Amino acid sequence: MTSAPATTEVAHLDLTRKPRPWDTAARAIFRVAAALTIAITLGILVALIVPSIEFFSEVPINEFLFGTRWAPRFADASFGVVPLVTATAWTTVIALFFAIPLGLGAAIFMSEFAHKRTRKILKPVLEVLAGIPTVVYGYFAVQFIQATVFRDWLNLDTGSFSVLSAGFVMGIMIIPTIASISEDAMSAVPNSLRQGSAALGANRRQTSLKVVFPAALSGIIAAIVLGISRAVGETMIVALAAGQQARIVGGPLEAGQTMTGFIANAALGDSRVGSLEYNTLFAVGLLLFLITLLINMISIWIVRRFREAY
Amino acid sequence: MNASTDNARASQTVGSTNTIVHGSALPSLEVPVIDCDSVSIFYDDFRAVHDVNFGCKRNEITALIGPSGCGKSTVLRSFNRMNDLIEGARVEGSITYHGEDIYGPDVDAIEVRRRIGMVFQKPNPFPKSIYDNIAYGPRVNGMKVESMDDLVEEALTKAALWDEVKDKLKQSAFGLSGGQQQRLCIARTIAVQPEVILMDEPCSALDPIATLRIEDLMQELRKDYTIVIVTHNMQQAARVADRTAFFTAEASDTTGDRTGVLVEFGDTATIFESPHDKRTEDYISGRFG
Ligand SMILES: Nc1ncnc2c1ncn2[C@@H]1O[C@H](COP(=O)(O)OP(=O)(O)O)[C@@H](O)[C@H]1O
Ligand SMILES: [Mg+2]
């Protein structure tokens, strides 16, 4: 009984390799796609670095990084980037101040408390919010938040622009990003953990904050980092609402030009390719890139350090 | 209702319509800790179990056996209101804990779960350290503990895991083997000092050696706790349980839904050696269709 089929079957046994053209083609296509992605990224990096090198041959790197006066187009030009960095820091921090609590709150609500039906409605709405063009947000910040709310209604001591209105509106803009990605991360936490927690007498709040949230931490950090990157790199809102004057920003109601705001502004001008003014653009762009990279690296470290993998 | 005050050793046959009655005249120790009376459980309109009547006595192990889909897990989950987490789940009839209806209007499901703990089919440790897995329950319940370290050690010792993990309490619980993880889940349950422990096929994801360890542990825990275990493994029920409830699923005449019913409940030896109901006998002897 056990040995019956052996002999006849073996004659047909063929273990040699057969050509699989589709497999080969698919692998080639994916390989090309991967290579292209890397090549494009490297290309952009080179395009940033080459003019930057030229820039730093004329302006000492120290003066650029630590100088406190940014006046690249003045007769007595000065290339201290600190003012731009302060404006970027203010708008980003203000944006995150609103976006992180609200975004995570919305995510916890949707994932842990809302009924299925509520979530089904809420999530697409949130994602639509993420699709509003940033120029609309920028206009909203200048015209409504700054002019109407801050100046007319609240009588705040502020000019036509402020990092607060720009940052606040930018925060609203990134809430959907943070909420949606964190919600995905928390929904992916297995239900067995929620059940285990409930069976020990934990209530929903305890389960969501002490079990689900830490288990989803790496996804949540990824959401926040994406939010930070968007805030640091966001251009239209700050160009419209934060102000165009490069000065060190000392408070939320002051105006100031951010790094992206400067790039947008300068790129509109007619600076000659290869001129110092032209190269300045790329030096600021490179700095922006390095800051984003640093934030990413810190977040990877945080995730490694605090992750509770399931 | 057939009132019966026979001694508890007697097995009783329960059809889908009639009711088993626990010896209400017996001394208080014999009064069931958990008692179901005419319990039916629904998922939306689907009746998953119908008219279940039996009780689980203190310091005994009660096994729920039967073919899969007959509602064993459903019944078990209703004992500590874990069904509340499932949208559309609904319990009819009464389930009492020391005589108090756990589905009563003023009852807090969280209070019920503190006293009636649960161990699941698949080990589900939290993605935290071994120590924090144990400390979690006492912490969320705001238990006043003199020394959390002592409590952790005690729970792990009772769950026969202390010697294996005492040097790596700060390490992730995910580094443990499946059997160790399941004992950790038992320790975690013990740490909130419940009176009853519900176990839903706690060994089905484990190898035979780990299974035997858990069974030994159950015999040990039985001295302090009341245990209800769901198992698909009849040998396991025969080995560990004092009493056994045999469920099966029957198609309803009206809707055609397969609804779980309690066929027979009684002393384990009787259920396995001389069952009163033909369906029990068929199932036990492997002649189940
Ligand atoms: N969460 C649920 N929602 C809807 N129906 C369920 C759910 N859980 C179980 N059921 C149904 O209830 C019946 C009993 O299931 P269950 O209690 O899991 O049986 P057992 O544990 O005996 O295998 C089955 O028909 C099953 O499909
Ligand atoms: Mg089950």
Structural summary, described in words:
The complex is a heterodimer of chains A (310) and B (289). Chain A is mostly helical. Chain A has a single domain, classed as MetI-like fold (Orthogonal Bundle), CATH 1.10.3720.10. Chain A has 13 helices and two strands, in the order αααββαααααααααα. Chain B is an alpha/beta fold and 289 residues long. Chain B has a domain of 186 residues: Rossmann fold (3-Layer(aba) Sandwich), CATH 3.40.50. The longest helix of chain B has 14 residues. The chains are: A mainly alpha (310), B alpha/beta (289). Chains A and B meet through helix 8 and helix 9 of A and helix 2, helix 3 and helix 6 of B. The complex binds adenosine-5'-diphosphate (ADP) and magnesium ion. Magnesium ion binds next to helix 1 of chain B.
Spatial strand arrangement across the major sheet of chain B:
1-11-10-4-9-8-7
**Radius of gyration of chain A from the CA trace?**
26 Å
Unreliable segments of chain A (pLDDT under 50, ≥5 consecutive)? none
Q: Which quaternary structure do these chains form?
A: heterodimer
Q: What's the CATH H-level homologous superfamily of chain A?
A: MetI-like
Biggest interface? A-B, 23 and 27 residues
**Ligands (ions, cofactors included):** adenosine-5'-diphosphate, magnesium ion
